[in-house]
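Researcher: Final request for today, and then I'll write up notes for the group meeting. The sequence and the SMILES for NAP follow.
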Amino acid sequence: MKPRVIVNCAMSADGKIASRLRKQVRISDEADMARVHRLRNLCDAILVGADTVVSDDPSLLVKDKYVDHVKQPVRVVLDSKCKIPAGSKVLDGTAETLVFVTRGHERELEGAEVIACGLDAIDLGGMLEVLGGKGVRTLLVEGGGKTIWSFVKAGLVDEFKVFIGSRIIGGESAPTPVDGEGFADEAEFRELKLVRTTLSESGILLEFEV
Ligand SMILES: NC(=O)c1ccc[n+]([C@@H]2O[C@H](COP(=O)([O-])OP(=O)(O)OC[C@H]3O[C@@H](n4cnc5c(N)ncnc54)[C@H](OP(=O)(O)O)[C@@H]3O)[C@@H](O)[C@H]2O)c1
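Model: Predicted protein-NAP complex:
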């Protein structure tokens, strides 16, 4: 069964998910951080693109200060050419990690299982099938913008959650929640249904279904 795909990200008041230096910046407030960790704990797997691993080196773990009974989700990285550095936190062995690569780029990577899926690009449908076969029912896609775009473009997103924080970052090259080439034709735009808004300490969470 195809896992349910939930996109969750945080953007500034002007719609950026990081600065033009493409380094992680704090956008969520403390209440939103707690929500994100509770959401992670409810999901079976968390996915990011390789560039997020390279630039931010996230651990993708659930922090026990936010959650009573921690159950670490499987960590998943989309990394066509298997470029993430040895020593990345996602490879530290504290939770299971799967690295999806394209065929011909399989290699031994300590701390992860490397899975080939797709020829020129990672086949997201095939990847979801593999995850489904491993018992993943809900997949949390946390970014970055290119990765979220590829899920949106493929029509694979079921829920879209975006926290809007109270900072302005600016910069035309700063990443946004959905980058890639984007849709040009209005007929292709994805329509969302707003199902909930939640005011936080310093921002607002918008939750949509697709
Ligand atoms: N605020 C937030 O919520 C948040 C969350 C996460 C990240 N970020 C920010 O996002 C920025 C990184 O975003 P990004 O858009 O540059 O990169 P990204 O989405 O993290 O990674 C993109 C890379 O993943 C690989 N990839 C493999 N398969 C893919 C597929 N099907 N679709 C898309 N990518 C695929 C590609 O590299 P290969 O071709 O080499 O495989 C691609 O260049 C950083 O600045 C980070 O701080 C913000």
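Model: Residues 30-42 form the longest helix (13 residues). The CA atoms of residues 42 and 130 lie 20 Å apart.
Researcher: Thanks, that's everything.
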